[in-house]
User: Fold this.
Amino acid sequence: MKLVLIASTDSIEAEKISNTLPQDQKAAIIQSSDQLASLSNGSAIVIVDHNFYEQYGLDFFKDILKNPHPPFLMLAPPDDIQTMVEIMEIGMRYIPKIPDYQKLLGLAVNNTLAQIKEQEQLKQTIVILQKSLKEPESSESEEKAHEVKINILDEIVFVFKRGEIELPTLPQMGIRFQEMVNKGLNLQEIGELLKQDAAISSKLISVSNSAYYRGITESKNLGQALSRLGLKNAKRYVDAICNRSLYATKNKRYVKLLERLWEHSLACAYASQILDESLVLNLQDDAFTMGLLHDIGRLLLLQIIGDLQLKRKLGDEIENAELLNTINGHHGKFGAALLKKWKFSESFVKIAAYHDNLTIADSMTNDMAVVNFANLMVKSLGYTTNENENDLLQEINLEDTESARFLGLDVSMIDEYKNQVSAFMQDLKGLFE
Ligand SMILES: [Fe+2]
Ligand SMILES: [Fe+2]
Assistant:
């Protein structure tokens, strides 16, 4: 177990701080800058008391925080705005040293430790994945083309190991919503939860007032919006709204690609839903959310690569075609690992893993067929994940696919589904921003 370091020049204070840690957490109290410099890198968290900071100063910390480092939490008086700003600018977290700060610190430490644990587990998953991605012997000409793809992945794994990538976390509101549904709470009680988030509430109201749902009167508040949408749809749109926020990137190069991926995912979500409803499949997990998340591995890889390029840890010279090939080939495994990490059910994980390649799935199931077909159908409507896919699509005959046959779809049914998806996208796609 890694240590929590407590840096304080006052031994009584240090003792107080160490009492806030979980009982089984090992800690070390340090009083000198040398000790901090040499020990910080191998520790889980560093808690800095403001007296220590005052003694060694901003430059000392700037130096330490330049390199990869564990989370630094600093206790400082709540009225010392200048210090607060200084430390946050260099990447330390600020905890106000109010009279009963122990409670606050305890919470912050617990949360940070939980996050670290989660990141560690995912890093291990990725390392295992990466090993399994390295295919054995291949012919020489293939080898060269393959090399580039593996290099991007190698790089990703390398920075993961150094803790330089933050993985997206599952939006909390969606989880809490699901918990309330599981507990059997009603719309009104769930409304109370959603009210806490003004952005989600206002988007749900707009969705309920869209041409697609609009009744005779306008819904003016969350309660009216929820009763118009119903519990199931409300859950779907909360998932969509929460997920929408994940499709963001600071790397301008990928903004368009991510926007396109979002539309593809939303269209696939709705297409999956109408397939489930019209064929009365009663899938165990909600088809909309399965469709929404099927390509989450693409999102993950694009964000990681974009992030690495911004941090100059991966060259900018990767060509689009290479990038897309890497993502096409590996997003299934990455998506499955992420959904597993987020504790989604086995169906979600399998769909993420096999939706583009049914032949490697162990068996064909209704939910797999639904998402596979929805994915192809929305591409034929132009909701592709990238431009290169447009050319390939000319050759696909939707009614002649394995999933269409499995689900028993004919041309007229498919046309009807396409119309419904187009109408939905036209009315709703702009409302989740
Ligand atoms: Fe995919
Ligand atoms: Fe897809």
